Amino acid sequence: MAGPASADAPVATTAKPGTTLAVQVQGPSAFASGASARLVLDFLHARPGASLTVSYRAEPGLVLESAAQVTLSADAQGRASDALLLRGVQDGRHYLNVFVAQQGGAQQAVSIPVTFGSAPLQKKAKPPAEGAEVVTPTGESLVILPASPPRN
Fold it and tell me: Could you tell me the end-to-end alpha-carbon distance of the chain, in angstroms, rounded to an integer?
């Protein structure tokens, strides 16, 4: 197992895959390059005692070393947890897609960002200025004009 790639304190983050369930990441979501890492997920707000079928799909650059599908049981407070192993095969930010189906309910999905190694921050490109000429990927030349308000 690897520790966090940075000195930042672990922070729990929450993503809500719908109106009833929430998925919470416990601990860090940034890990050392090329190492296996344990990611702990808490599933909150389930019906007490309900069965949850959870499927995991890793995007390219991320390898799931645990079972791709598990069945969890919510406790009396409507909470269930799972700890899974992941390995980053490429440095950078990758996403673990989590699909949750609650017994008798609809399937919900959430994507959880996981970082391995150093992931440079991607700066957003500034939009072209008004009047600037740009070329599209297909080679078409365009002139940027301001949007005009609709006429009444």
Answer: 63
Total number of residues shown for the chain? 152
Is the Cβ–Cβ distance between 94 and 62 less than 8 Å?
yes
Q: Quick one: pLDDT at residue 98? A: 93
DSSP the chain: ----SSSPPP--EEE-SSSS-EEEEES--EE-TT-EEEEEEEEESPPTT-EEEEEEEEPTTEEE-S-SEEEEE--TTS-EEEEEEEEESSSEEEEEEEEEEETTS-EEEEEEEEEES-----PPPPPPPTT-EEE-TTS-EEE--PPPPPP-
Answer yes or no: pTM beyond 0.70: no
Give the sign of the dihedral formed by CA 102, CA 106, CA 107, CA 113. Answer: negative
Residue whose token pair is 């699909």:
99
Other C-beta atoms lying within 10 Å of the C-beta of residue 108: 18
Q: Which residues of the chain have pLDDT under 50?
A: 1-19
pLDDT of residue 118: 77
pLDDT of res. 68: 95
**Alpha carbon 24 to chain centroid distance?**
11
CA geometry: angle at 37 spanning 33 and 38, to 5°? 160
